[in-house]
Write a structure and sequence with these properties.
Number of domains: 6
InterPro entries: Ald_DH/histidinol_DH (IPR016161), HisE (IPR008179), Histidine_synth_trifunct (IPR016298), Histidinol_DH_CS (IPR001692), Hstdl_DH (IPR012131), PRib-ATP_PPHydrolase-like (IPR021130), PRib_AMP_CycHydrolase_dom (IPR002496), PRib_AMP_CycHydrolase_sf (IPR038019)
Strand content: 15-25%
Bound molecules: nicotinamide-adenine-dinucleotide, L-histidinol
Pfam families: Histidinol_dh, PRA-CH, PRA-PH
GO cellular component, one term: cytosol
Number of helices: 30
Radius of gyration: 36 Å
Largest sheet: 8 strands, parallel, barrel
Keywords: Amino-acid biosynthesis, ATP-binding, Histidine biosynthesis, Hydrolase, Metal-binding, Multifunctional enzyme, NAD, Nucleotide-binding, Oxidoreductase, Zinc
Distance between the termini: 103 Å
CATH architecture of the largest domain: Alpha-Beta Barrel
Strand order of the largest sheet: 1-2-3-4-5-6-7-8
CATH topology of the largest domain: TIM Barrel
Helix content: 40-55%
Shape: globular
Organism: Imshaugia aleurites
């Protein structure tokens, strides 16, 4: 429907029927409203959208908002379009917060109330500003405070060559005729509700609403009438009638379907038949020569022949809805539908049955038949609850206005049922696969809503059970699938522009993202350099002691990994090959800080870097909101001799380390775990040959696999599973129970539930437990087979003679042996490293260790005889490869040897 005018409403002071101007109900007949959101009224605007999305098409003026997130949330809550200032348009477009057709929901607002000047120049500069930032998507323009018609005329002229979908105006003077002229000229006038009336006799100074409508219309009929299509709420056409200025005026005054009969004049539908119509709204079509009335029809129907429409009875979904409503009011004896209304459990079962039959249907006819059955039962449930087809459509419309969309993964239980795997589980395995975003918004580790039952069964936090003898291989394979994350493409689309901006824009770009993601807006430099001020590392004595103990154990274990002397092998007499290691000179260590601050990761990366002898160690970690870094990390940075701490997280920190900026030194290798953005950032920079940087491995959401036999202590088993489940909802924990009794399984489950319920992060745990499993196997050999296939980040062996099982471990990041080795000792203090491969990457990667910070150089040292001994092999192979210079490098030397002999 074309836009002609918007009624502006003060959301803090909603118009009511006693006021001057139009009341809310009458405004809904005109359908399009304009509201203003300021930092103070932002929440009111959201509440208005949520409450009235079904009644109006709502446009929001956001020019006074400071936060781009607030603008996006208005669009996400159903705002049809947002009016933004030029700087907001620029930022939204540049940050790619709106792309594609969502950009078309912007209207750029220019305030001309105080500026005069050549209209031609003004119009040109407006057009230039828009084209500079949104060159490809047509967007609307709004001229605010217009007091000069020359400017509007010029804009109108320009619109013939430059397309703006909507030219909106707010007038400086409140004159009736000006509004009417604007609408007649094809502009969309924004008119305050208190300057409009449906009763011009009573309020002669206000603008008559019906005149505004007819000003937008042009009749191409000799009698000047406007053809009017009448539809029901679902958009089904009831018939064709005619309107004129008078009938529109009465329709607006009475809120009913009122038309002009070419035989009888003013026609109030249903006045005689009783089949009245409640007016929902009226609108003008795209070329302004026809009207549409949307109405709620009562009685027999619209047509004088007593059918629902002038084209016959309803059909399809509308007929079904009508029948169901009739049955609800009064059903004939024995009606099946009426039984469904009375037996909700039967209805529920039928919905599931039909949904499953639809899934199984293959050919076109079957699919249509099964979809029809499912619709019947689904709509029965809706009608029983008083939900109409219109309500469903509104809901769909609201979802379609969202700019941040869910990826739409199936819940694990359903995905597993049908054996669906996320197609995007490819690239790294770590950054592949759900989140949240909601795209932009779905941080990996967010607590579940309180009423979310994920991970719970009958109110208990419980993992799903599978038994290898009872379930087929495919079912178990699916059950052991890691939870999927946001698709690789989505993440790459977010990360790549960030990296490019930091590479090109340096410090300023890093700061921009730190302000945005960490909200640390007071930060003016992205770096904290050593020597670190003592006041930034004040810690309680017990924390210092804990760090010192962990530091020393980690140092000892990693120092023991040093190769004391070079490897030296004489491969043939006189041919000596050697290999020696050298530290990587400059390393960047990423310490996560999104959902939890992990100083222990600073130790796990920093201590081996120091032991290896890296010359330059730079830490990077997202700062807190006030711009500071947690004192434990500063203290550890000081202990390991770090050059500096980059006060940034995510892909921006990775890019700064890879390319360097004015203040951040470039590094040769980046190590450390992180979320999907960090991991994707590491992948991107390591693939850029111009960056000259390598990375450690894909280290994503934490996971643990516990193998427990009859000797295992349920309390220990449950506590180990929970220690990794509390990391994030994207973590996965697996229990392999070896030949357990039912009592033992129940004991594991009771403990898990009881301990989880007492933990502060139980909501996160529930999320993780949703995709976690207990697998029952017959013996330890089978347990090891499954464990090796899964290749867990952490493997815990709570079995008899655990030490002997170690020899069967082929793939795991780190193993914890026996009842007295909880995984958390490895997380903090035992000495082994906690930066480990996840997602099954333990099949090809090691966890961080000393060699992650070194590289090897080889050397060959030959005597004369040595060269003679190897010469024929070298020369023959050079000949085969037709590389003559290679061959000669040997033959010339042999000749020289021979001559020297003579
Ligand atoms: N495998 C291992 O060895 C190991 C060790 C420790 C931690 N971990 C894992 O590391 C992860 C840490 O993740 P985290 O989120 O807590 O911290 P993080 O520091 O990895 O990520 C936070 C950063 O993500 C960026 N970000 C957030 N939302 C964004 C968006 N919408 N667009 C672009 N960038 C965005 C921000 O820059 C923010 O600074 C967890 O999954 C944890 O389990 C793994
Ligand atoms: N378990 C994580 C590695 O997957 C590391 C960690 C840090 N803090 C606590 N735990």
């Amino acid at each position: 429907m074309a836009e002609h005018f918007l009624v502006s409403i003060d959301i803090k002071n909603l118009p009511s029927s006693g006021d001057n101007g139009l009341a809310l109900e009458t405004i809904s007949y005109l359908h399009r409203v304009h509201i203003t959101a300021t930092p103070e009224t932002q929440q009111d605007a959201i509440d208005f959208l949520r409450k009235y999305f079904n009644h109006y098409i709502i446009y929001c003026d956001c020019t006074a908002l400071e936060s781009l997130e607030d603008i996006l949330s208005l669009l996400n809550n159903g705002g049809a379009k947002v009016f933004v200032a030029p700087w907001q348009m620029k930022a939204l477009a540049e940050d790619r917060l709106l792309v594609g057709q969502d950009l078309g929901r912007l209207v750029v607002s220019f305030d001309r109330s105080r500026s005069d000047g050549d209209p031609e120049e003004i119009a040109k500069s407006i057009s230039g500003e828009i084209k500079a930032f949104v060159p490809d998507t047509p967007i609307g323009i709004h001229i605010q405070g217009v007091h000069d018609w020359k400017l509007l005329d010029t804009m109108n002229r320009m619109s013939k060559t430059e397309y703006y979908p909507g030219r909106y105006v707010t007038l400086a003077h409140n004159f009736q005729n000006e509004y009417i002229k604007a609408v007649k000229d094809g502009l969309v006038a924004i008119i305050p509700a208190n300057e409009l009336t449906t009763n011009p006799k009573r309020s002669p100074n206000l603008v008559p609403a019906h005149v505004l409508i007819t000003s937008a219309l042009r009749s191409d009929r000799p009698d000047g009438l406007f053809p009017t299509i009448v539809t029901n709420e679902n958009g089904i056409s009831l018939g064709l009638v005619y309107s004129n200025e008078k009938s529109i005026e009465v329709a607006l005054q009475t809120g009913r379907g009122v038309y002009h009969s070419r035989r009888h004049g003013l026609w109030i539908k249903g006045q005689e038949s009783g089949d009245t119509q409640e007016l929902i709204n009226m609108s003008v079509d795209c070329d302004a020569d026809a009207l549409k009335f949307t109405v709620r029809q009562s009685g027999e129907g619209f047509c004088h022949l007593r059918t629902s429409t002038c084209f016959g009875p309803y059909y399809g979904v509308s007929r079904l809805e009508q029948t169901l409503k009739d049955r609800k009011e009064s059903a004939p004896a024995g009606s099946y539908t009426s039984r469904l209304f009375k037996e909700p459990k039967l209805l529920e079962a039928k919905i599931m049955e039909e949904a499953s039959e639809l899934c199984e249907a293959n050919d076109k006819n079957d699919i249509a038949a099964e979809a029809g059955d499912l619709l019947y039962f689904a709509l029965t449930k809706c009608v029983a609850a008083g939900v109409s087809m219109k309500d469903i459509e509104h809901n769909l419309d609201l979802k379609s206005t969202k700019i941040t969309r869910r990826k739409g993964d199936a819940k694990a239980q359903w995905a597993k049922k049908v054996g669906h795997q996320d197609a995007s589980n490819g690239l790294t395995g770590v950054i592949s696969g759900s989140a949240e975003q909601e795209a932009l918004k779905e941080a990996a580790s967010v607590p579940k809503e309180r009423d979310d039952t994920a991970g719970s069964q009958n109110g208990r936090i419980r993992m799903k059970r599978y038994k290898t003898g009872d379930s087929d291989v495919k079912t178990i394979k699916n059950a052991l699938q890691r939870p999927s994350q946001k698709s690789t493409d989505d993440i790459m689309d977010i990360v790549k522009p960030i990296i490019k901006e930091v590479r090109d824009g340096g410090d300023l770009a890093v700061l921009k993202y730190t302000h945005k993601f960490e909200k640390a807006t007071s930060l003016t430099s992205p770096i904290l350099r050593a020597p670190f001020p003592p006041n930034l590392m004040q810690l309680p004595q017990e924390t210092i002691e804990a760090i010192n103990t962990s530091y020393e154990n980690i140092r000892r274990f990693h120092a023991a990994q040093r190769e004391e002397k070079p490897l030296r092998v004489e491969t043939m007499p006189g041919v000596v090959c050697s290999r020696f290691s050298r530290p990587i000179e400059r390393v960047g260590l990423y310490v996560p800080g999104g959902t939890a601050v992990l100083p222990s990761t600073a130790l796990m990366l920093g201590v081996p870097a120091m032991v290896a002898g890296c010359k330059k160690i730079i830490l990077a970690s997202p700062p807190r909101k006030d711009g500071t870094i947690t004192p434990e990390i500063v203290y550890i940075a000081h202990m390991i001799g770090a050059e500096s701490i980059v006060l940034a997280g995510g892909a921006q920190a990775i890019a700064a380390l890879a390319y360097g900026t004015e203040s951040i030194s470039k590094v040769d290798k980046i190590l450390g775990p992180g979320n999907q953005f960090v991991t994707a950032g590491k992948m991107v920079v390591s693939n850029d040959t111009t960056a000259g940087v390598s990375i450690d491995m894909p280290a994503g959401p934490s996971e643990v696999l516990v193998i427990a036999d009859k000797s295992a202590h349920p309390k220990f088993v449950a506590s180990d599973l929970l220690s990794q489940a509390e990391h994030g909802i994207d973590s996965q924990v697996v229990l392999i129970a070896v030949d357990p009794s039912e009592e033992q399984l129940t004991a594991f489950e009771n403990e898990l539930h009881a301990q989880a319920m007492a933990l502060p992060r139980k909501d996160i745990i529930r999320g993780a437990i949703e995709h976690s499993v207990t697998l029952v196997v017959k013996d330890i050999a089978e347990a090891m087979e499954y464990s090796n296939r899964y290749a867990p980040e952490h493997l815990i062996l709570q079995v008899k003679n655990a030490e002997t099982v170690l020899s069967s471990v082929d793939h795991a990041g780190s193993v914890f042996v026996g009842p007295w080795a909880p995984e958390s000792v490895g997380d903090y203090s035992a000495g082994t490293n906690h930066s480990l491969p996840t997602y099954g990457y333990a099949k090809q990667y090691s966890g961080v260790n000393l060699s992650s910070f070194t590289k090897h150089i080889t050397s060959s040292n030959l005597t004369r005889q040595g060269l003679r001994n190897v010469s024929s092999a070298v020369m023959q192979l050079a000949k085969v490869e037709e590389l003559e210079a290679h061959r000669r490098a040997v033959s010339i030397r042999l000749k020289e040897m021979d001559e020297m002999k003579d």
